Amino acid sequence: MPSIRSLSSRSLAVSCAALYLVVSAVVGVALLATPQPVPPAVAVSDGPTSVAERNAGEPPMPPTPPRPPNGFQRVTGPQMVQTVIPLGWRVARGGAPGAMRATDPADGGRFVAFGGAPAPDQDLATTRVTNESKLAARTDDYERIDLIRATYAGHPAVEWEYQHDDGSGPQHVRALFWQVDDVEYFIVASGPVEHWQRMQPIYDQMVANSRP
Fold it and tell me: Which string of b and e fits 93-126 if b means at least 16 CB within 10 Å?
């Protein structure tokens, strides 16, 4: 039976639109992997079939957000989620309750999303597995890269990374979901597979600078 791995820390990746179309329904040094009894919803032949637990071991984030990194601006979204996005990216509603989306004005295939909404009754991992099945059924060439049970700043979290074809070509998506009290927050980065190396640093900065 495929295993699910588990993970731990706020900076799961300083080193859970395509994804947000299942949002709410929408790090990295691997130090510890513990098998869990939750199987993936979709069999994947070309990539990992685990969901992981990691620990980046960073100190707690200060109560006041630091200045955004060079080239980024701080934004606040639904449920008071805060993160950073590249300067000049256009922010608009994400098409679903609790979601905002920012798009690269020079390349509409590169975008990030962020937001928050009341948490569903299911836990984060169960919700993502359910959403994975729906996403795989409605998009072409879905391939899971990772699905990671985690903690983020001491809160339950899940990171989800995958590739699929959204109709405009192969997209690489990476997202982090975390829950604080009764609210589920998320950040997402998505871009063409061939340009993912330009999106990964953006995702890393979002993870490093998001709160609560």
Answer: ebebebbbbbbbeeeeebbbbbbbbebeeeebbe
